Amino acid sequence: MGANAATSVPGYVSGEVLTAARLNVTNSGAPVFADSSARDAAFGGTGEKTLAEGQLCYLEDSNVVQYYDGSSWATVGPSGAPGLHLVQAETAFSAVASVTADNVFTSAYTNYRMIVRYQNNSGLLSFQLRAATVDAATNYNIQLLSAGSTTVSASRSTSQTSATIGSNSGGAFWSLSVVDISGPQLAEPTVYQSANTRNDGAYTTNVIIHYYGNHSDATAYDGIKLLGTTANITGSYTIYGYGKTA
């Protein structure tokens, strides 16, 4: 257990002597427990507080802050909580060839989701990983599967300079790419997949495209760059981290 970890939460009665040992339990603000079992055991015993709505605590094993809502414990955060957690707020861009987001991949998460809403006149939408603002421009490998009307096609590309995540919208028609990226912050190959809904020159001629791929370098990255073929991409992107614990 850490220096602030507690095994009890003292309660006091009128006239009781307040000892340093009992005061130190609450010196860290919210009481700190090794895990949920230690938390549950700390309330309601002789000389201890009775658990009630509004109580806060911190759990060392999962690195989360919790509150008691009157019937159960709920998690406030940070990254150990389940679900998606905002890492990069929605960021707009207009008529650019590229846009970068640095310091978004950390050890707080293993897996990330990037949502890109975009328009582009021609070419592809792709990304490069970045380490300390330096772009990685080699060793991207991509498998493509697409369907438009009754036509299905597939292709593979290896040793590319970027990872494709979307095709062109054929003009001012909104398209969407939802991209899952696994392990960008680890010194291991990074794996990704992208589900792309492309409105090909009209909203009545939509096409679905799935990209599956990897960046095979065993390098840790902290940033990402979105790329268009030319200076013609407009839209917005948001990045989330997947919580690690239940």
Q: What class would the helix/strand composition place it in?
A: mainly beta
Helix content: under 10%
Strand order of the largest sheet: 5-17-7-13-14-15-10-11
Mean pLDDT value: 87
* Anisotropy-based shape: elongated
- Compute the number of strand runs: 17
Radius of gyration of CA atoms, rounded to a whole number: 25 Å
Low-pLDDT regions? none
CATH class descriptor of the largest domain: Mainly Beta
| Number of individual domains | 2
What's the number of helices?
Answer: 2
N- to C-terminal distance: 21 Å
Q: Major sheet, described briefly?
A: 8 strands, antiparallel
Percent of sequence in beta strands: over 45%
Do you know the CATH architecture of the largest domain?
Answer: Sandwich
Order of helices and strands: HEHEEEEEEEEEEEEEEEE
By CATH, the topology of the largest domain is: Jelly Rolls
Give short descriptive properties of this protein.
five-stranded antiparallel beta sheet; elongated; Jelly Rolls; 4% helix; 2 domains; 2 helices
In a few lines, what is going on in this structure?
The protein is mainly beta and 246 residues long.
Describe the secondary-structure layout.
Layout: H1 20-24, E1 32-33, H2 36-41, E2 56-59, E3 64-68, E4 73-77, E5 84-96, E6 98-101, E7 111-120, E8 125-131, E9 134-135, E10 140-148, E11 151-160, E12 163-166, E13 171-182, E14 188-199, E15 206-219, E16 223-228, E17 233-242
Parallel strand pairs: 1-2
Antiparallel strand pairs: 2-3, 3-4, 5-17, 6-16, 7-13, 7-17, 8-9, 8-12, 8-16, 10-11, 10-15, 13-14, 14-15
